[in-house]
Structures are given as C-alpha cells and as structure tokens.
Design brief:
This protein is mainly α and about 240 residues long. It is built from six helices and no strands. Its main location: membrane.
C-alpha cells in the first residue's frame, strides 16, 4: 500500500532530507580527512587518542553516506522494512556522534599534550630523520611558529644557537642563522596549534549541530512515514 495526502508530502520531505544527509555524509568525510591530514602532516602521530577522533568522523561520514542512499530508496519505494531499518541505523549513528562529541571534549587537552610530546621528540631527531625534519618544517611553516614553547627550544638541539630555516618569517637558505625578532617567528608551535584547534572547533561544532538537527528531523519523518505505511493509506 502507498501513502496519500499529507503523508505523500512527508514521503518527499524524507527523500529530500535523505539527500541532505547524503551531503552531510560527504561533509563529514571531508572534515575527517582534513583533520587527519593536518595531524599527520604536522607530526607523525602514533597515539590512538589523538588520531582516533578524525577516524571516527570519517567512519560516521561513510556510514551516513550509505544510510542516506538506503533511506532515499526506502522513501521512494515506500518500503516499511527499508524505512524502519533507516530510522534505526540513523538513531544509532546519532548516538555514536554524541559519544564521539563527548570523547572529543574529554581528549581535547590530551591532543595538546600528545602534540607537545611528539613535537619535542621530532625536534630531537630533526637532523637524523628526513621524515621528522619534513614534519617539523611543515608545521613551523604552516603555523608560523618555532620550537615547542618558543624559538629558544632549538638552542638545545640545534648547533651554534641557530634555528631551522622553517622558523624564518620568510624562509630562505641559512636564514635560521640570523636569530632576530624581525627574522624569526618567536611563538612556540604548541600554543599556536592549540589556538588553531580552538578556532576551528567552533566550526566543527556548528557543522555537527546542523547535521544532528537534520538527523533528528529525518528520524521523525521516517517514524511518521512508517506509521502511515503500516496503517495502509493509499497513494493518489
């Protein structure tokens, strides 16, 4: 049996919302990849608590991508079984997102600690490993910072009171030998990175709240349509 009248409107609304879910799934995948790339581009992170959040975001995005496609088919075909499955899976994803948000809040300070520790370890082997050298140079160039806490950290690891060329405001060959305030980025990378996280956290929270709102609407519309199909309304 098919639906009619107001339920037919709900059917098309559910179809539209599923298309938006599909877009949200893509958005989550992109956000997760960008966060993961930023973390691994800046440092070779091995701590699971630091890299776990973007992996969860990517996984949720992929699942939402397929669930949305599943929901679109269920709404279009008016399949009670498919719509019920869609509503259950979407509810589970919503709960997972809440758990991920809580975990992200709990571990937000741990990311900073892990970053600081990994950066200092990378600085110690800066001249011994090309991978660590590239990672440190990338973060100091991208975030316009130098050292862990400040540029003087390099005096412990670098020769003759110098800093890497990536610390320079305008990186050029051997510019790190001229350690002056006009030539060197003095702020440490830990504080700079933490500021970057706090700044972008608001964007992530805003996107997450928007996605959660659409998910709740999708669950409501799915439940309404499920009831209508089960009641046996006819389509015009």
């Amino acid at each position: 049996m098919a639906v009619e009248g107001g339920m037919k409107c709900v059917k098309f609304l559910l179809f539209i919302f599923n298309f938006l879910f599909w877009i949200c799934g893509i958005a989550l995948i992109v956000i997760g990849i960008l966060v993961q790339m930023t973390l691994h581009k800046t440092l070779l992170i091995t701590n699971a608590s630091a890299s776990g959040a973007p992996i969860v975001i990517i996984a949720v995005g992929v699942v939402i991508f397929f669930i949305a496609f599943f929901g679109c088919c269920g709404a279009w075909k008016e399949s009670y079984c498919m719509i019920t499955t869609f509503a259950v899976l979407l509810t589970l994803i919503f709960l997972v997102e809440i758990a991920a948000a809580i975990a992200g809040y709990i571990f937000k300070d741990k990311v900073k600690d892990v970053f600081s520790r990994e950066l200092e370890d990378s600085m110690k082997t800066y001249n011994q490993s090309a991978d660590f050298k590239k990672a440190v140079d990338t973060i100091q160039t991208d975030f316009h910072c130098c050292g862990s806490h400040n540029y003087t950290d390099w005096f412990i690891y670098g020769p003759n009171m110098t800093v890497p060329d990536s610390c320079c405001k305008t990186p050029t060959l051997n510019c790190g030998k001229n350690v002056t305030s006009s030539n060197i980025n003095q702020p440490g990378c830990v504080v700079t990175f933490d500021t970057w996280i706090q700044k972008n956290l608001l964007i992530v929270v805003g996107v997450a709240l928007g996605i959660a709102f659409f998910q709740l609407l999708g669950i409501v519309f799915a439940c309404v349509l499920m009831k209508a199909i089960r009641s046996g309304y006819e389509v015009m």
